[in-house]
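[recover] target loaded
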């Protein structure tokens, strides 16, 4: 791997360098022969001929094409050892990366923010030995990172996956949970899906064996139609919309392979360890923010959190905590940045609504260092004219900011389109009670402003919020990429021996 000592690299550098090829385990070699036409007796000869073909290509020198065998092997496998297709895949790979600007060397920290949002990660291998890449649609938040940042981070993550022989041969699957995804995150789906499918169809050396979507909102079918013309018929046939029935996903992959927080599985997913493993793969050290998971099982569940919050850059910070409140019982601190509530992302005050049917309340949060907390408090004060008096744990407003903080008031007027259980009139799931397009656009325009001086959020199944959004008061409301294949892949999955690893990338 051609990653520099200071962890600066282009994605292509993650593919091992050299002509020496490892001997495959017997079961993996048998699968490669049966499905990919990879014959150990002729493999080196094929790669030598592929090298010669590429060196004669008109773009060879301009693109500075690598022709070492360890680089060429994933392309040969992705195209089932068909010479012309493998060569085209290599050239397409270079031209696509150049077009997207992904051929440049960057430090691993360039991907940090996108990875820390929780929008993407590698789960490991399923029972067939396929690598599982998971996406969380609601976490593609452009307030945290740009669309280009997310796309580039996914490209980087897929390069880490294909360093493994088993992934090159058995392929990978993508799982996406779209629960809680609003139209603000849909911009990634609309543009990102097109780029992703374009990449996987002909511009990347990997076998995408399936794309499984759960909890998709109503508008996703339309977005898929936009992306479909850019996708081969084989790839599009591998897209499966499963709706809200997670049991179907469990039948395919097994609950023991899926995280409890997002797919109702049995695995406890540890965020810092996952990002640290990514950094370790490129020889870097990850120094994570302090991430905590706090759970309360108070019964009966209080009607209110009893906390004050401030919204900045699409993130909710705790600015006040009532004595004896659920927030205090959870162990929240001033300055904590709340990321999820019972597995759902928290971006606006309304996302902190409680449901009295919940047996427990779990929040995932970042607890900033004192230095970061002071920096964030200063930014809040400069941006909004709002200070946080940590002595009495109450927000203190100054200047004109107190008279016109941003809120969800405009959105509340349109909330009648949704019933109290979080479903719209068409029956599509809408767990956050996201509002129609105009209201969402209004919310998006207020990203980076004060959500409310106090959350005192009550049960969400009592009725719609009545906050008019004009005063900073306690609300008290009721709240496979193998085009041209002439036959089925015939994957039998092997015996799955390679599916158990501490490191998700191998």
């Amino acid at each position: 791997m051609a990653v520099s000592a200071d962890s600066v690299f282009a994605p292509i550098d993650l593919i091992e360098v050299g002509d020496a090829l490892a001997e495959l385990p017997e079961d993996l070699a048998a699968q490669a022969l049966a499905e990919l036409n990879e014959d150990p007796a002729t493999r080196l000869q094929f790669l030598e001929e592929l090298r010669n073909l590429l060196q004669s290509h008109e773009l060879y020198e301009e693109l500075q094409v690598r022709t070492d065998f360890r680089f060429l092997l994933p392309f040969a496998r992705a195209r089932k050892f068909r010479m012309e297709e493998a060569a085209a895949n290599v050239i397409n790979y270079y031209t696509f990366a150049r077009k997207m600007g992904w051929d440049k060397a960057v430090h691993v920290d360039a991907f940090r923010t996108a990875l820390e949002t929780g929008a993407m990660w590698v789960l490991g291998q399923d029972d067939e030995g396929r690598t599982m890449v998971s996406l969380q649609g609601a976490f593609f938040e452009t307030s945290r990172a740009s669309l280009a940042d997310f796309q580039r981070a996914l490209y980087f993550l897929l390069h880490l996956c294909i360093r493994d022989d088993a992934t090159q041969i058995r392929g990978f699957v993508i799982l996406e949970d779209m629960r809680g995804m609003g139209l603000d995150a849909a911009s990634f789906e609309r543009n990102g899906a097109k780029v992703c499918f374009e990449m996987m169809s002909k511009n990347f050396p990997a076998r995408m064996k399936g794309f499984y979507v759960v909890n998709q909102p109503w508008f996703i079918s339309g977005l898929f139609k936009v992306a479909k013309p850019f996708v081969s018929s084989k790839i599009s046939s591998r897209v499966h919309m499963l709706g809200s029935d997670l049991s179907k996903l469990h039948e395919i992959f097994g609950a023991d392979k899926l995280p409890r927080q997002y797919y109702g599985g049995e695995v406890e997913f540890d965020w810092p360890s996952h990002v640290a493993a990514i950094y370790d793969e490129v020889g870097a050290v990850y120094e994570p923010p302090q991430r905590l998971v706090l759970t309360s099982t108070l019964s009966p569940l209080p009607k209110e959190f009893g906390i004050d919050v401030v919204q900045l850059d699409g993130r909710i910070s705790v600015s006040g905590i009532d004595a004896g409140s659920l927030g205090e019982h959870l162990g929240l601190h001033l300055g904590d940045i709340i990321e999820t509530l019972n597995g759902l992302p928290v971006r606006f005050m309304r996302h902190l609504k409680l449901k009295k049917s919940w047996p427990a309340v779990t929040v995932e949060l970042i607890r900033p260092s004192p230095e970061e907390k002071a920096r964030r408090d200063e930014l809040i004060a400069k941006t909004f004219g709002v200070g946080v008096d940590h002595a009495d744990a109450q927000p203190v407003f100054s200047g004109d900011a107190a008279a016109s903080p941003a809120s969800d008031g405009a959105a509340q007027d349109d909330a009648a389109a949704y019933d109290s259980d979080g479903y719209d009139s068409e029956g599509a799931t809408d767990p956050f009670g996201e509002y129609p397009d105009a209201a969402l656009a209004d919310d998006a325009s207020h990203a980076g402003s004060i959500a409310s001086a106090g959350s005192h959020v009550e049960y969400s199944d009592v009725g719609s919020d009545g906050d008019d959004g004009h005063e900073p008061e306690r609300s008290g409301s009721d709240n496979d990429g193998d085009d041209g294949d002439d036959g089925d892949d015939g994957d039998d999955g092997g015996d799955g021996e390679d599916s158990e690893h501490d490191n998700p990338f191998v």
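[recover] notes: Residues 290-445 form a domain with the Pdz3 Domain fold (CATH 2.30.42.10).
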